[in-house]
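[job 0412] stage=fold_complex status=start
inputs:
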Amino acid sequence: MSVTVAEPGSPDVRTGAAPPRPNRDVYRDVLAGLLPADERLVCLDSDTGLFSGVDWGTAADRYVNLGIAEQNLMGVAAGLAKSGRVPFVNTMSTFAATRAVEAVKLDIALNNLPVRIAATHSGLSAGHLGSTHHSLEDLAVMRMLPHMTVLVPADAAATEELVRACADIPGPVYLRLGRGATEDLPAGAEPLRVGRAQRLREGDDVTLVATGPYPVLAALAAAEELAAEGVEAAVLNMHTVKPLDTAALTAAARTTRAVVTVEEHWAAGGLGSAVAEVVAELGVGCPVLRVAVGDSFAAGTGGQRHLLERNGITAAAVADRARRAPARH
Amino acid sequence: MTETVADGRTLEEHAQRVRELIVDMCANPEGGHLGGSMSMVEILVTLYHSVLRLDPGEPEDPGRDLLVLSKGHGAIGLYAALAERGFFPEEELAAYGTPDGVLTAHPNPAVPGVEMPTGSLGHGLPLGVGFALDFRLSGSDRRCFVVLGDGELQEGSVWEAAMAAAAHRLDRLVAVVDRNGLQITGSTEDAVGLEPLADRWRAFGWTVLEVDGHDTEALRAALGGAPRVPGKPTVVLASTVKGKGLPYVEGQARSHYARLAGRQHKRALAVLRARSRRTETTA
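[job 0412] stage=fold_complex status=done
writing structure:
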């Protein structure tokens, strides 16, 4: 299996295949299909523009644009959910996880209400829109909240699977979506199950644990690079950051000499922190090395791919961490 | 003597008992939010005994009207009003402030009749917008009342919700502002002024009614019947007195939180009861 991290949104030059789709577009289209079929569902928008032109059919009155007011958005969602509805709430991830977070915490999480927060522009996907729109804190914030399920689809197909999986989750859900198109993951992986890491590659030397489109692709590419050097790396797509698949992490920590995490998030509090918490408590001496954005507002300016590279979220960085992991005593 | 409600007592009599219960709770070692609980007593009593469609024996009845106490620091006022309405025995109020009790100083939904945990200010009206949206989607004739403090109106989320409610024509949503004019540091107008308050709500697209918030008849007239104007949410601006019922703290910011230990507790009850007797004599 050869993995390259291609520029998104462009047709495959060899096959002419359709370009990958942004996961937020997939979310929109899946939701547009779900809403008319289930009277409980309500789509609450905050003037994101994502739903322009969507024909909701018989569900038109269940699409409600509440304007640019994210705190109110979360409170309204809670009121509806308390009434037996299942609201899908749309905003950009940094607004969900910072501006509106008290309403998410008190109105939604405290009441354990089935609100689905679909948060676009996560990580560095807002790219050139700048630091105000970069969202490098949302995994930390959302995974702290009791009752919250945190889902991160890595490609278009996973987005559809996870949006549909939301139906069976009783409490609140945070769904982390990007902005532009990202490359599809290699075909053939097992179906996603919420709370269960998706094993994309076997390997008994190190374990690479990644969440989100580019991090997962970077982990796969790093595994290829390591394999060429005779190091076998397992790759786990941690699409569910909460509840974290502790069984998979326990197995990884007991059987491989290091865990390397990869995420489009600040190093503090995100996937790497979550994994480190689990592995440290095992006391098995397995190091956890994090590939994430450091303690800065995403150094540099530019698009998502450029910022990922400038901030060290690359396959080379992942491979480097894996190589530098100390041998097990 | 004003009109009696279903149980043969007047709203004033209910209000009197609720005030006594509030004072009793403030005698707890933890103390309580006295002033803002006392100022909204008639508002809550009028809603629970005369306006809201509900059954205290069925607090989760899906057809009930809703009351969200957005000014959640008034929880002891809410608990007292709920006990007086029959949601639970008033003896249970003695557990306020005790370890492992459910009666926390901000509304706890584990208490029968409490709809939502509130008290971080500015949350109630957005919740009310959500409830009222559900009523509209369901074709329900239920109503949702949100009781707000006036200092709370300094929170931006209140106005986000006010705009949304008007934009979406939620005429089964009624906001009631307990306009006692005080917040912890003093006058609301000296902090970040709210006037002209009625004009502000009107400018946000609401039907505005102004009443004496201690006049149960006026409150009944303002809160009953809905929608007041089809397609528009209603706000009732209720002029009240912080600490109402205890003359020596009435209208004073220091009534905000009080611990009425020993003699202070006895004195407060005596003053309340003396006032009650005077009212009966003049009626």
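[job 0412] summary: The two ends of chain A are 32 Å apart (CA to CA).
[job 0412] exit 0
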